[in-house]
Amino acid sequence: MTKLIRDRLLLLIPMVLGIIFIVFFLTSLLPSSPGRLMLGANASQVEVDKLNEELGYNKPFFARYLDYVWNMVQGDFGSTYYTRKPVFSEIWPRFPITFTLASLSMLVACLIGIPIGVYSAVKQYSLLDYMSTTLAMFLAVIPSFWFALILLLFFTLQLGWLPSSGATTPAHYVMPVLVTALGTAASLLRMTRTTMLETIRTDYVRTARAKGVPETTVIWKHALKNALLPVLTIVAMNFAFSLGGTVITESIFSMPGLGMLVITSMRNKDIPLVMGIVVFFSLFFLVLMLIIDVLYAYIDPRIKARYEADEVGNLKAMSGTWLSRMKRGLRKVWAR
Prior knowledge:
This protein is mainly α. The protein has 15 helices and no strands. The chain folds into two domains: 2-91, no CATH class; 95-256, Orthogonal Bundle (MetI-like fold). The longest helix is centred in the C-terminal third of the chain and has 35 residues, at 301-335.
């Protein structure tokens, strides 16, 4: 397990540097001047050039890229062009709203998609199977903005049950969670059904049934555990995408999360804030994938055994090397 975590952590370094380089390169192509954006249209060109020089905007591209990486390692993501506040101080207060929305959406999607997918696989070609697959295809093609507007018209304007904007009470999260969760539930339903159909036809499932193990135990304990590996990957990726993909949902429901912050910063051409949000989401996604890789080893004993065998082999090789060196040293001492 130590080797798995070490290898994944070392792999994160070039991935993070590559992501920062791509985003930094794309933002550098924008025809904007930080000095002009910060000082306004009425400032003189001399003042703009002086501020650009202080911010390091006139440096070569690679020099600015290395400065940004070095400052990011020290925890400095820069300052926004308009409020002059640190970028992280603008991101962190809004992150809990987006994180809560994404977490609740994934919870609802898992509670809907995984059980229905399991029952659909167990009852293949039944009425439940046809209904669930049809529902999954229907939910997958519904545009999120259209579904959000329908919910607003029905639950807010006609019935008056739910608020239309904000994120201060649990009622504010009901419609955004439904909009975000149903599309994810459709993909989880299809993936769970596919993996369960493959798993329930394996030899160990037939052996468990032949031994008289109850059907519920065979399905929910033996088959589902092995079928969850690809489903777990879909859950993690959709959760990460939900964090970065709630822009439309937060805009429609006026939720003060990171989605609204992304739109505002892009409209204002606030490059440091856009860079900070993208890098923050990228780091969160990579760390989440690392956690999923570690969970793989605990869910599937074969993965854990393989890495433990590699660690034992490496330890034996290292110990053998040190023993041979000690023997050569003792022989030289004895020869003297």
